[in-house]
Design goal:
- The protein is α+β, with helices and mostly antiparallel strands and 413 residues long.
- The radius of gyration is 28 Å and the shape is elongated.
Amino acid sequence: MLGGFVSLKAIWNMGFEGGRSIELVYDWGMGIDGSVLDEIVFSSAEFIEAWAAHERDAARLALAAWRLEACGDWAHDGSVSMTAWLRHHCRMSNRDAAALVHRGRFLDKFTAIAEAACDGVLSAGQVNALRTVTKPAVESVMTAQQDQIVAIIAPLSVADSEQAAGLWRQRAEAVVDLREPVEPEHELRTARTADGLIGRFVLDENGAVQFEQAIRTASTWDGTSDTRDNSRRSADALVEVCAFFNANHTRPGTPRQRPHVELMVEADTLGSTPLAWTTDHAWVGVATTDTLLCDCVIHRVHRAGEAILSYGRATHTVPKDLFRAVAVRDGGCRFPGCDRKVSWCDAHHIHYWRHLGLTELENLVLLCNRHHHHVHRHNLQLKLMPNADLDITMPDGTTRTSQPRGQPGKRGP
């Protein structure tokens, strides 16, 4: 007993390939007086030791997860994958479950690295640095050199470990007998969450240059009223890049040949709060649904239960000629301070389409992807004046006005 806690231990025995046995021990604290949270107070030294113990146990759990996947016991309850099993039984996110299995797979391949991780010689950050650079082409080199690599990496910081691991990879690729040139290191992993999408990516030097230039090009600043920090502005720019590609690529499905995003909406919910989902059965929020409904192709599907009775002819919410007329008048995004050009914009119904707003010039304005979602998300009130000025009432009650860009200025002699 320690600090009013009763210790409950669960011990798992696992063996490495070399026959070494490791005990995985978990302690759950149960506060006798019920004040568990009050007992969670560590000194700086205690916190460091607790974190080191956590990382050692995390390495053992990763190995256990991979070996459980390898033996197939997870499938006995009908789970379709180890990741699905972890989501269901351990209440893990898809991202965390996949990361755990991938880490365990890496540790299982390299005994010296696994032992160092389980003993606390290598931190989780150092293990991740090695896992990132150990691609299939150089795994044989890592197998032969792992003991020396652990000795070199162990005393370093995570930043220095990443640099050393990158240097090792370059040398390993130089000595290994590759059948073909090593492809640039590109990696993208994403996972859907209740709030949207999270993930990580890795790009080589050329990819990094292209990405950074795209973010700079797509970034906007709305003047002194723009309170976004750099990370938020970069994230908004990434969404704009994706929206721009979806609207302007050369394949079928560009803006005037909607839809470039397929969405299912329950017809009887359109008058109030639309229920919508993607083809991957991911729910879509009301603001996003309203934004897409402003300017899309609509197919009416008649169902009787699950049986489809008919699939109606597509109708354009905003026909090509009408979109061009709006574009000629507005010249780009009409949100005050935004300089997005027409190619970045959607046609927005001032009086919402699902509220029977008319698809006509006087009820349409151009908004870029970010400001289109912003208007729907905050339910901003827009009013198009007879001279084509646009008044927008902000959430704080203030009104901002934008003017149409009209014809470009004439060149001088």
